[in-house]
Design brief:
271 residues, 0% strand, 73% helix
Length: 271
């Protein structure tokens, strides 16, 4: 990506050198926050329904708007606030429509705890995104060097998670578990075991997802988090509309209302 979009092969080595010399630990907590968010995702879904999670996760929009105003000194006009409210309402309607067949989650304290995990996960997604946007927009910052740092730190957190899981399995006495620190082959098996059995289709998905490492930072730097908020709702609306055209079916009224709110919001934010 650096060779293709950042000035050619001559930029590769200087960018990597800067990534390892320009405050590399400054970005570590962002990757840690994303890793913690993934853990909270599974913890929440174990206690509440998927539909409830989808609705509660929309609190990220509220957190992002608040942080954009407080951390980035964004100025929101009444039209912008109305657009964000419509985006929140439209996203909720669209996702409820998409998740209409989901089962109910557990009740009582378990549901309350799961809801807390969902909201906390949304916060842990919004805070690093806004902070990263502020960092990328700082004069003199090298976007590509920071992207390398984020990638390395995410891989490091994942590697530590893999080793911790393998070591925990050994302590628990699970059948087939091997101590990752007993030998070099065991260490490699624990570190890269999750790659075993991946099909070409899975690798294609991984390759497509890796483009997020280029597109998301570029969006944060040149547009901002408030614009990035529209990515998921817009993709859901476009996918559902394409599916409706292909299958010659009419989407439910709640979906149509939600899609209309999302489209109106897109047309009026920062206008």
């Amino acid at each position: 990506a650096i060779c293709a979009f950042a000035g050619g092969p001559s930029r590769l080595i200087p960018t990597v050198k800067r990534a390892y010399s320009d405050t590399p630990f400054k970005i570590a907590w962002i990757a840690g926050a994303y890793a913690a968010q993934n853990v909270l995702y599974f913890a929440a879904l174990g206690r509440i329904s998927a539909a409830s999670y989808q609705v509660l996760s929309q609190s990220k929009m509220v957190f992002t708007a608040i942080l954009a105003v407080t951390m980035l000194k964004e100025k929101l006009r009444k039209r912008d606030v109305a657009a964000l409210v419509c985006l929140l309402g439209g996203s909720t309607l669209v996702q409820l429509s998409e998740m209409a067949g989901a089962g109910a989650g557990k009740g009582g304290a378990e549901a309350l705890l799961g809801g807390g995990f969902a909201v906390l996960g949304a916060l842990l997604s919004a805070v690093p995104n806004v902070w990263y946007e502020k960092l990328l927009k700082t004069p003199g910052e090298d976007e590509w060097a920071r992207n390398v740092q984020v990638t390395v730190w995410i891989f490091s957190w994942i590697a530590l998670s893999q080793l911790w899981t393998a070591a925990s399995a050994v302590r628990a006495g699970l059948a087939g578990a091997v101590d990752p620190f007993a030998s070099l082959p065991n260490f490699g098996r624990a570190l890269f075991g999750s790659f075993e059995g991946l099909t070409p289709a899975v690798w294609l998905v991984v390759a497509l997802k890796s483009l997020n490492g280029i597109l998301i930072p570029a969006t944060l730097k040149y547009a901002g988090n408030l614009v990035y908020l529209y990515a998921k709702p817009t993709s859901i609306v476009m996918t559902a509309l394409a599916s409706a055209v292909y299958s010659s079916t009419v989407p439910p009224a709640s979906f149509c209302a939600g899609a209309a709110l999302v489209i109106w919001s897109m047309a009026n934010i920062k206008k």
